[in-house]
Design brief:
Elements: H1 2-13, H2 24-30, H3 44-52, E1 55-60, E2 68-69, E3 75-76, H4 78-91, E4 97-102, H5 107-112, E5 118-119, H6 127-130, E6 135-137, E7 142-144, E8 146-151, E9 165-170, H7 174-185, E10 190-195, H8 198-206, E11 212-216, H9 217-225, E12 233-235, E13 243-245, E14 248-250, H10 254-272, H11 280-286, H12 290-295, H13 302-306, H14 312-319, H15 323-330
Parallel strand pairs: 1-4, 1-5, 9-10, 9-11
Antiparallel strand pairs: 2-3, 6-14, 7-13, 8-11, 8-12
Length: 361
């Protein structure tokens, strides 16, 4: 008892002392976190990008909706625009980016070798990729799932009816592994027709080298638009996997990982708060909402903590748009794919989805 009282007395006596390293007890006593000082970003990747003058961004070599070149040779797509978001955040210019088209097989080698600074290529976040020691996922920009596309003439209602079927799939993808799991777990015999790329798998399906094509639902929707008669092809209702897609960086540069994570998060928050490409500049001047003021750099030093200007998120939204705007023009109602938001709706939408912005404060 005496020892306990002595300890308590010592704690009370120390209350008047200035402590430079508050511990958990100090946070619990005050009910608030201590104010953090600004830490200058020391990212070797960011320094290399700034010195070079543009971002090297790895993307799909050709997937409608996500990454493809239009008839003028300009890059378009959902993932492409997130590359532009990063360029706008870093340089204030969304065009300061070089797109590096990559296959499923060579994307990670390109990242490891430093040919790209970040991989935005509909890549699934899996345990094997995350804990392998070389790479880090910085977030999720699209929630997908794997399915199967077949010709309507086969009159199939479910993937479980594909017994004995030939199934086209891309090499080096999680789709090939998921197909194995799906058919093996159900005792269904099938013949994989493995193509070097997703595009080659689609072309093989178009030539009728296989009975079904398996890939992410979004990729199947994109593939169907390229068929001679899209109405003759059906995407089966079965969803056989979870595919959380997001950006990947090399492990070991935490400041760069944070920059990628928070540029993605900034455009997600912008949609949630009603900040658009059209009104962002005006809201930066007029908004009294402290959340918007922090996001757009009017209050706080959040850009400096990333090694960027105070206007980093404002530049991203003005240069490219918020998450909803990016989605709609590439994948949603304004695009050829016309995909519903589904799981990719904001958490507070009706019906709600899984897109949830982390707080900037």
């Amino acid at each position: 008892m005496g020892l306990a009282l002595l300890t308590l007395a010592g704690s009370v006596a120390g209350c008047g002392e200035k402590r430079t390293n508050p511990g958990p007890a100090d946070v619990a006593d005050t009910g608030a976190l201590p104010k953090a000082g600004v830490v200058k970003a020391e990212s070797p990747t960011l320094k290399a990008v700034q010195r070079r003058g543009y971002l090297n961004c790895g993307v799909h070599q050709g997937l409608v909706g996500f990454a493809y070149t239009d008839n003028r040779g300009d890059w378009r797509g959902f993932d492409v625009e997130f590359c532009r978001v990063m360029a706008a955040s870093i340089f204030g210019d969304p065009d300061k980016v070089r797109f590096v088209p990559l296959t499923a097989d060579n994307r990670f080698d390109a990242l490891a070798a430093g040919r790209i600074d970040v991989l935005w290529r509909n890549t699934s976040w899996t345990m094997d990729r995350d804990v392998g020691g070389r790479f880090t996922f910085a977030g999720i920009n699209y929630y997908d799932g794997q399915g199967f596309m077949v010709r309507r003439a086969l009159d199939l209602n479910s993937a479980s009816e594909l017994n004995g079927a030939r199934v086209c799939v891309a090499a080096g993808s999680t789709s090939a592994l998921n197909a194995q799991d799906y058919f093996r777990s159900r005792g269904i015999e099938y013949t994989p027709v493995v193509a070097p790329t997703e595009e080659a798998a689609r072309q093989a399906y178009g030539r009728e080298d296989c009975d079904a094509f398996t890939a992410d639902i979004s990729a199947l929707a994109a593939a169907r638009t390229t068929m001679a008669d899209p109405q003759q092809h059906a995407i089966l209702a079965d969803i056989v996997s979870k595919e959380p897609l997001g950006p990947v960086v090399r492990r070991g540069d935490e400041q760069w990982t944070a920059l990628v994570r928070w540029t993605l998060n900034a455009v997600i928050l912008a949609e949630e708060m009603g900040v658009t490409q059209a009104n962002a500049k005006q809201l930066a001047k007029d908004s009294a909402d402290p959340r918007i003021r922090r996001l757009l750099g009017v209050e706080g030093d959040f850009g400096e903590r990333l090694g960027l200007s105070k206007d980093w998120a404002l530049d991203a939204v003005v240069g490219v748009g918020n998450y909803g705007e990016i989605f709609e023009r590439n994948l949603g109602a304004q695009s050829a794919l016309d995909l519903a938001r589904g799981l990719n709706a904001q958490w507070n939408a009706r019906p709600g989805g899984l897109i949830y912005g982390l707080p900037i404060r």
